[in-house]
Amino acid sequence: MTFNPLLEKGTPIEKQIRSWHEIAKKPFNKTEVDCYTRTRQILMNGIEVEAWNFKHNFARNCNDTEVNKFLAQTRRIEDMQQTTVNWLTPADQSVLETTLGYEQVAVDLTAWMAQNEPDDYVKETFDFGLLEDFDHLYRYSQWAYLEHGISPNDIVQGQTDIMLSRPTQNHHNDNRIRLRKPYDKATADPQTKVNIYTLVAGEQQTHNYYAEHGMEYGNQCIRETYAEIKDVEEEHVTMYESLIDPTESWYEKLLLHEFVEVCTYYNCMEDEENDRIKKIWEMFLDYEIGHLQIAANLFKKYEKRDPEEVIGTKVVLPCRFMSQKEYVTNILENEIQKRLDTKMGYTEIDNLPDDWPSYEIQEKVGEEGSPTEMTIQIITAAKGRDLVIADKKLKKKQLELLEKGLEDIAQAPDTITIEEMNEMMDEEEIEHECV
Ligand SMILES: [Fe+2]
Ligand SMILES: [Fe+2]
Ligand SMILES: [Fe+2]
Ligand SMILES: [Fe+2]
Question: 265 near 317, Cβ under 8 Å?
Fold first, then answer.
């Protein structure tokens, strides 16, 4: 089913205030929840944080009282929605468990978008970022196992593979070369706009989660692992947000934000199997349609244009969560050696010049070691090797992938070398499933 949200009424804003009891609902059960219910919950929290934050920024740049009243009224609603969604997280879900959820969001969401992205350059950027979050999932999984004694599969439930990718120490770039070419607002497909806005919100919240929670561990290597990966998430926000046409007006951006909320809640509602949580997506979809109506009217009034020129005539699906192992394996095998060039495009390790600007950054941040490499050193010291969850065929390629994906220049002193990886692969696999 599809529909044109501009033709719907939604819930009137005055009816969107709820009681504290209704706002802070009962959390899900971490051992029973479907992994994709959790990924939807993580993503929608990011969407609401962005909606709230954007409206504050808009207000700080706006001296129109009517508009500021709308922003004040609805950003409180966005904030209440954020509480409801984020606080579905149960108190006994550890920071590392939640973190595996965040990286599962990044991998499976980006893979879905890449396959539904009409713009080839944007798709290439999604594929590039995808491999980095896939490596983060592998690094954090080692710690979830060592620190909490859980199997990463308790969280990803066999839907997402866990193995090395482009090594995290190679994700550190000169942030200036992360900048991409923006789409053209006049010609870009609404799917492209919604995909990018959605991903920016997700990556931003991932960054914020690591920034706020990485220090909750006393283990210095875990703290530094969060510091290192958080910084990559900053690069991801920089990369994805630069794809947005910077000449979109505030009203156009407002319209897009509400449309993104409509599309993401609609997609969540369509896919959700948990009845209680499905009702939340349904209710918030109606709220967002209410917001969209007003944003569309403001756009017509101030821009004298038709909202359909920006968002089209139907909802798009930006976040269909499903297992993407096959797609990710394909990108992993073919694109692990890809790197950013200095002209907003892509190149490969073998073609990088000696003065590639990211080498300087990598040399500095990794001069005393890379925590995400040390993570593998530590689990290898304890268990003989790293924890990998993938099918046999893919597991066998670990060495080949490392050879292809690791830069020779600017390696951190504690890098897992090709020889060390080779030795590890002779060791018995780590028994990680609960018996
Ligand atoms: Fe919202
Ligand atoms: Fe990540
Ligand atoms: Fe990311
Ligand atoms: Fe909204």
Answer: no
